[in-house]
Every structure is written in C-alpha cells, then in structure tokens.
Amino acid sequence: IQQVFKQLFYMINAVTLNNLLLRKDVCSWSTGMQLRFNISQLEEWLRGKNLQQSGAAQNLEPLIQAAQLLQLKKKTSEDAEAICSLCTSLTTQQIVKILNLYTPVNEFEERVTVAFIRNIQKQLQERNDPPQLLIDFKHMFPVLFPFNPSSITMDSIHLPASLNLDFLNKV
Questions:
Q1: What is the DSSP letter of 56?
Q2: Please, which residues have CB within 8 angstroms of residue 141's CB and are 6 or more apart in sequence?
Q3: Is residue 46 within 8 Å of residue 52, measured between CB atoms?
C-alpha cells in the first residue's frame, strides 16, 4: 500500500508541476495559495492513514517549493537569496521558467523583472542540475517485496515423482 501511494503521489507531483511549467495562466500568487492548501490536505490525509513513512509526502516536495515560489516576494536580492535557499528540489531551469511565466492577477502584484531573474540565475549557476525542464511522469519506482523466511526447512520437503524433477539432488 505504501509503495502504491508513493507512486501515486509522484505522479500527482509530476503532472501538476509540468502543467505549472507549461501554462502561464496558472503561475500566480493565488494558484500558489491553492496548491499549498491542497498539498496540506494530502499530507494530512497521509498522516490520518498512517502512511507518513511511505515516502509519498517527499515526492510532493518540488510541488510544495513551486507553490511557495509563487507566493514569495520577488523584488530584492534578499528575496532572490531566499528563493535560492528554499527551492532545492527544483532545478534552476524550473525556477526561471516559473518566474518567467509568473502572471499577476491583480493590480497589487507586479511582474518579475528580468534583472531579478538574472540575479537568480547568477546565484544558482554553481548548481549541477539536470538540463530537463519537465518531470518524467511515466517514471516507475521499483516494487519491493519484503522477505519473509519460511519456517519449513529444505530437508523436510518431499518432491513428488510426478513433477519430473529427478535432476534436483539434496546436498
């Protein structure tokens, strides 16, 4: 069950983040608020079902950081430093793309300036990020089956002759 929810939450993260990276109409402060609320509901559900150890919540970390990025101030060099220290699960390319797509929804917000985005790029240039922008939502985690040793010893097993396993010998 834990492995299923880990995979499911990975897919939720990948599809949602990819949509955020491809659609300008959803890159806004209000979307960041809605995303963060929805993610907190998912995290609360995991806690309620005692699935915190499944790794499902950790798969949502890039989406959490993207939601926080949409909500943060984006003006000063201190804001840029805060973004760089906060967004460790997002690649530089993803951060820059979200900042470029950021669209104010009311008159109190402003677009992100080119100088601010260049400041972010300069601060993050030491990162060794993969060059991909989108997350592979088809990625599958390996299924792990727990080992449960049998209480039956090999000496006590009798192989019927009808199985034609004469080539097997007891050692």
A1: T
A2: 3, 6, 7, 10
A3: yes
